[in-house]
User: Which sequence fits this backbone?
């Protein structure tokens, strides 16, 4: 049944307060039918209200809020105090009257007592964000700096914001940059990474309302699409790299550096915009306090790196063959990071490959900067990566982080709650580009070791939490496997089952429908059903909504008319593809690939017919990257 046929049922249930069929079944103690996905009540309500459509499209009444941010930040290393002033125009596109706002203050993760996914060292701790001035529509408004909230804080507005109205907010704030950099902080005494650095309005969405999830340094983003003008004010000889167009670069760069910078936008080879010697010789920036002004429109976030001794490489690459549009690729690093000398080339490769292969959507921004830091972490138009002795690993990390451009940034994903919609895709793209870079065998071996084996090798129930479980309710191994390896294997299994052409059509439709919006997992599942023309709910349920793991076994190999029937048991339950490696008595062999479709009819047992006139000597199951938890029962041999 196409997913759309469920719509009237869900709508009626939600509007009239009548339990849906799934709820009724659960109340009666019956397990939900395999073909019916759990849909949270909040999402059912969105269908009923018409903000989302059960066929996976945004609904006719879809809305999202947005903001316009004007920010000036002053940083004067080695002084660790970062000061900011900001005006926000926040537009309420919702049908609701907003009497409160929720403000995100991510840097309060550094405050003693803040909820965190893991412990904090002394060097990590700071007093957090101090709001020095708060104003609403121009009127000074009291702000409580120690309210018992940490990374988010509710604010009562003096006057409500009506639907389609807006409110003007102003903040002055300061914080001490952390001596131990995580996703942001002090990289060295005169190199700072500024991310999550400004007060912002939390997402207020159509299915859950205000986002009041804590930022715990584990899950990463849920952001509205805003317009930004950000000025970073730094002393002479500091270079600033960051999200957005550098406005009036001639006001901050000396003429020779400016010429090299501008040439890089059409260059294929790496241009050294500023070498270490140029920076040491103070030949790069204008000899004054400089305002580095960056502008970006309709983007989920801004991040910046600044240093008085990093070198600067740049080049560009064609990301849209139709229009010949190029994107700039830049790298900022120290001479000690030998692998970073290759980063512009790695970045060109990643932008070009992702644009033209998978997902096959032209890189949506004007640039990408790879900044030497400590996080291995993505930001729009920027990644903050460690240096590694193994350059292959450096490339791998850069490719993964740049792949995040599509999820969560291009797609506005709520990865704090549904990490698998973001990390799962970055892990999938990382695998696909890795295969192109290094070949299938090496990539499979690395992917198994890095993304799969820990999950499959560990019998702890913490490994088997359903992927759909809210990521903000998880930590440790449950979060890690659910966000990365498990969902990625699921996406790759769907690709294997649908074939590349159909998979691509469905993926591109999902990306086209939800670019710049906030898709839920159900919007993704339903779009794939809708566009592929197949109801894959049995697969989504099997892979994303259960405690299954990968463990197949050969139950029997029996002679049958015209060959053999191989019966497979699905011990772990997960609908995994598998290769049957068949050896015949005459010394020949063949591999019979089975997609996950063999588990559609009966998810516990499947049969594979081997048509042959030969005698089978042995059969082995080889899951490849779909690593099997119990190897011992994957072999069958004829007894003589
Ligand atoms: Zn990632």
Assistant:
């Amino acid at each position: 049944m196409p997913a759309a046929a469920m719509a009237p049922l869900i709508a009626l249930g939600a509007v009239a307060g009548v339990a849906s069929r799934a709820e009724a079944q659960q109340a009666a103690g019956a397990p939900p039918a395999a073909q019916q996905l759990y849909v949270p009540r909040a999402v059912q309500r969105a269908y009923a209200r018409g903000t989302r459509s059960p066929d996976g499209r945004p609904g006719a009444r879809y809305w999202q809020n947005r903001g316009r941010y004007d920010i000036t930040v002053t940083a004067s290393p080695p002084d660790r105090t970062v000061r900011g002033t900001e005006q926000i125009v926040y537009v309420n596109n919702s049908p609701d009257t907003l009497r409160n706002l929720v403000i995100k203050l991510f840097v309060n993760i550094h405050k003693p007592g803040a909820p965190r996914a893991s412990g904090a060292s002394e060097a990590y701790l700071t007093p957090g964000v101090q709001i020095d001035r708060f104003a609403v529509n121009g009127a000074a408004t009291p702000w409580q700096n120690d309210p018992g909230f940490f990374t988010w804080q509710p604010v009562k507005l003096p006057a409500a914001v009506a639907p389609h109205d807006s409110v003007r907010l102003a903040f002055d704030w300061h914080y001490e940059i952390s001596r131990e950099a995580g996703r942001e902080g002090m990289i060295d005494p005169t190199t700072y990474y500024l991310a999550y650095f400004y007060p912002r309005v939390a997402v207020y969405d159509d299915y859950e309302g205000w986002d009041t999830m804590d930022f715990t340094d584990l899950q990463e983003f849920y952001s509205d699409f805003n317009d930004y003008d950000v000025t970073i004010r730094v002393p002479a000889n500091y270079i600033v790299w960051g999200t957005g167009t550098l406005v009036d670069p001639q006001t901050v760069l000396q003429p020779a550096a400016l010429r090299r910078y501008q040439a890089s936008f059409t260059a294929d080879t790496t241009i050294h915009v500023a070498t270490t010697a140029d920076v040491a010789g103070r030949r790069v920036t204008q000899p004054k306090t400089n305002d580095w002004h960056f502008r970006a429109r309709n983007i989920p976030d801004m991040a910046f790196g600044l240093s008085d001794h990093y070198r600067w490489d740049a080049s560009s690459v064609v990301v849209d063959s139709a229009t010949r549009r190029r994107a700039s690729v830049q790298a900022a690093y120290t001479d000690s990071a030998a692998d970073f000398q290759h980063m512009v080339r790695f970045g060109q490769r990643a932008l070009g490959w992702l644009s033209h292969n998978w997902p096959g959507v032209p890189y949506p921004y004007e640039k990408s900067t790879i900044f030497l830091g400590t996080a291995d972490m993505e930001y729009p138009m920027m990644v903050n990566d460690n240096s590694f002795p193994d350059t292959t690993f450096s490339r791998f990390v850069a490719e993964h982080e740049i792949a995040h451009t599509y999820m969560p940034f291009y797609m506005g994903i709520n990865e704090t709650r549904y990490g698998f919609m973001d990390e799962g895709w970055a892990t999938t793209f990382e695998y696909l580009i890795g295969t192109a870079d290094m070949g299938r065998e090496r990539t499979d071996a690395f992917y198994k070791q890095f993304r799969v084996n820990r999950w499959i090798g560990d019998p702890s129930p913490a490994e088997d939490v359903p992927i759909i479980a809210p990521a903000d309710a998880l930590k440790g191994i449950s979060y890690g496997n659910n966000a990365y390896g498990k969902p990625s294997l699921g996406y790759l299994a769907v690709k294997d089952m649908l074939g590349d052409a159909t998979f691509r059509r469905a993926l591109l439709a999902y990306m086209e429908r939800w670019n710049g919006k906030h898709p839920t997992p159900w919007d993704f599942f339903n779009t794939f059903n809708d566009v592929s023309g197949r109801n894959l709910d049995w697969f989504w349920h099997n892979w994303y909504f259960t405690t299954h793991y990968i463990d197949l076994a050969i139950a029997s190999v029996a002679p049958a008319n015209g060959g053999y029937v191989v019966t497979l048991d699905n011990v772990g339950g997960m609908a995994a593809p598998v290769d049957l490696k068949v050896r015949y008595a005459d010394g020949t062999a063949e591999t019979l690939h089975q997609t996950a479709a063999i588990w559609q009819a009966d998810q516990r047992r499947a049969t594979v017919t081997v048509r042959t006139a030969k005698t089978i000597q042995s059969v082995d199951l080889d899951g490849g990257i779909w690593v099997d938890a119990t190897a011992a029962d994957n072999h069958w041999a004829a007894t003589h």
Notes: Residues 1-34 have pLDDT under 50 and may be disordered. The chain has 15 helices and 30 strands.
